[in-house]
Amino acid sequence: MTRRSPLPPIVALLAIFAVAAATGALAQPPADKIPPSAQPVLDLASMDAHVDPCVDFYTYSCGGWMKKNPIPADRSSWSAYSKLQEETNDTLRQLLERAAASPGGDADRKKIGDYYAACMDEKAVEAKGAAPLAPGLARIAALRSKADLAELLAGLQLDDDASGRGGSTLFRFGSVQDFRDATKVVANADQGGLGLPDRDFYLKTDAKSAELRKAYLAHVQRMLELAGDPPAGAAAAARTVMAIETALARVSLARVERRDPKKLDHTLTRERLAALAPDFAWDRYFAKLGLAGPASLNVTHPAFFAGLSAEIRQVDLAGWKSYLRWHLIHAQAQYLSPPFVQANFDFYDKRLTGAQELRPRWKRCVAFVDRDLGEALGKVYVEERFSPEAKARALEMVHQIEAAMGERIRAADWMSPETRRGALEKLAATGNKIGYPDHWRDYGALAVARDDFAGNVSRGLGFELRRDLAKIGKPVDRGEWQMTPPTVNAYNDPQLNDINFPAGVLQPPVFDVRSDDAPNYGDTGGTIGHELTHSFDDEGRQFDAHGNLHDWWTPEDAKRYVERAACISDQYSRYTVVDSIKLNGKLTLGEDVADLGGLIIAHLAWREQTKGQDLKPIDGLTPEQRFFIGYGQSWCTNERDEQKRLRATVDPHSPERYRTNGVVANVPEFVAAFQCKAGSPMVSQRVCRVW
């Protein structure tokens, strides 16, 4: 479960950070649509009945699963949902192999087949070595002055033969929905320019952070050497890169600060931007990107661009060439020959997350096709693996959860009538996207060659950049998706005011019609509720029913909300992630509020759905117990310590243990279901609740 930020994130979180959401009232699709799952929604073998659920409910629910599911060597963690994504990827592999073997099909099938075939031809990729870097490196070498930096950067981002787009070299630029007018798309400039996952990696002074920076320095040098730099020159260039990136980190907003959308809302005219950052030729940059305008744009953090301008002024031309060379290589490393791929893995996967082995090439190729041709692949996936019945039944359960949320809003005695009306208006306006887009993306302008993997990647990213820039100045497309149909995940978009559930999560064992309702609602109902509650968490509540950043709360109600949310933040900040690292409750607050609220409204929806039914125990577990175990087993996970440390800095989601124990400890219905005594670890002395 995740929430799409209203602006591009600093770094893309690893897929396992955001766990999927799904449906609950979903009927089992026909056997020819979705392969049956061997694991039920509530799996007795995944439990550890020797553990007291009132002491550690997470281990009680997942102890058996954790013992049976060690982390694969190519993973930094392994969860119930990552297993489901792996099964989905197996299906995608079959579809892609079939498309690659029959290149004469329709245009979309031919494109995904050719892309996959080119990616899987490792001999051809190896034969090219570092050659795909050559055009971009040549352009950097030809840079004659810092005044030409802006035009060069835009050209590397756009040109299909330059292999030079890294997405965040110097900064991020693209389109974004206007904060104050949710009907419009505007240009957006955002901080970026870093090679490490977050600003804090450059600024922390502890021993592990210093050790990681030393390893990063060695990695940059190694990659420059692979591209042809002599060792001494590569070492000096790496030091320059570190100095530039550290300076950019110092003027970047912290991740917790970026959770406040008001801090990201700064409309500047082009003249104001040029005055703020005069050492970057903005007019030349926009012209090269093909933007005659915009007359104004959103600048998420003006102080970053003032700092960037000062850094451009202070660092000499040779230093900027070193920086650009590194980011060019870094952006392309995973698409090049094996030495580049292995070096990239050694630092970003093995060192940062603890993964022991590089993922098999087919897994990486499936991921690349899903990224660059996601709706073409998704269309094939939906046709073969997703039924209309699944979509209809999923929407039905979403409506049940929304009705329960309405009850919670009406029952919130801490809200004034004025604020309650605004909340109910927003709830009624919530959009629901289920399975796949109503209109598929047109990839007709994207050229895919069966013998040019690096070129396909470059053209694919260029196609997406042009598509993104073309939105600027146009009305918002409210039907657009931010995830592809096969994705095992879900998200809330606060500016569109909608919740989104791709087809990938609408399949067993996330939900199974053969199971009773209790675990289905505890598992998938809880995650549907999670996404809906995001609309009313500490970030989402700042957007109104139309998606505008607008304060529709009375001051007194806002104060009461903050007090209730602070209870949750304080609770989670006491949890230890790994070693002596504590959870940052301010970073995870939105997800923690959504976890708790989501489970509460799912329970309410389940009780309403089964009202009047004579529910009996199954396998010695009462219906209430099965509901909560279904929730607990949705979070079953094993995770390496390296990944835990990384997540503590960059992930807005709490560790799965606390997404389980931290939530149920605040739910009186859980306490009653397992007859927990006061003073038990799973019984909060101070019950936190927002919704």
Description:
The protein is an alpha/beta fold and 691 residues long. It has 26 helices and twelve strands. The chain has a four-stranded mixed sheet with strand order 1-8-9-7, with helices on one face. It has a four-stranded mixed sheet with strand order 3-4-6-5. A two-stranded antiparallel ribbon has the order 2-12. Helix 2 packs across helix 15, helix 8 packs across helix 9 and helix 17 packs across helix 22. The longest helix is centred in the middle third of the chain and has 24 residues. The radius of gyration is 25 Å and the shape is globular. The protein starts with a strand and ends in an 18-residue tail after the last helix.
Concise description?
The protein has 691 residues and is an alpha/beta fold. It has 26 helices and twelve strands. It has helices spanning 57-68, 80-101, 107-120, 122-128, 134-141, 149-158, 200-203, 207-226, 231-250, 270-276, 282-289, 302-314, 317-332, 338-353, 361-372, 374-385, 388-411, 417-429, 453-469, 517-533, 555-573, 589-609, 623-633, 641-650, 656-664, 668-673; strands spanning 2-3, 77-79, 171-177, 185-191, 267-269, 296-299, 431-435, 491-493, 498-502, 576-578, 581-582, 637-639.
Top keywords for this entry?
about 700 residues, alpha/beta, four-stranded mixed beta sheet, 26 helices
Annotate the secondary structure layout.
Blueprint: E1 2-3, H1 57-68, E2 77-79, H2 80-101, H3 107-120, H4 122-128, H5 134-141, H6 149-158, E3 171-177, E4 185-191, H7 200-203, H8 207-226, H9 231-250, E5 267-269, H10 270-276, H11 282-289, E6 296-299, H12 302-314, H13 317-332, H14 338-353, H15 361-372, H16 374-385, H17 388-411, H18 417-429, E7 431-435, H19 453-469, E8 491-493, E9 498-502, H20 517-533, H21 555-573, E10 576-578, E11 581-582, H22 589-609, H23 623-633, E12 637-639, H24 641-650, H25 656-664, H26 668-673
Helix pairs in contact: 1-23, 2-3, 2-15, 3-15, 5-13, 6-11, 8-9, 8-14, 9-13, 15-16, 17-18, 17-20, 17-22, 20-22, 20-23, 22-25
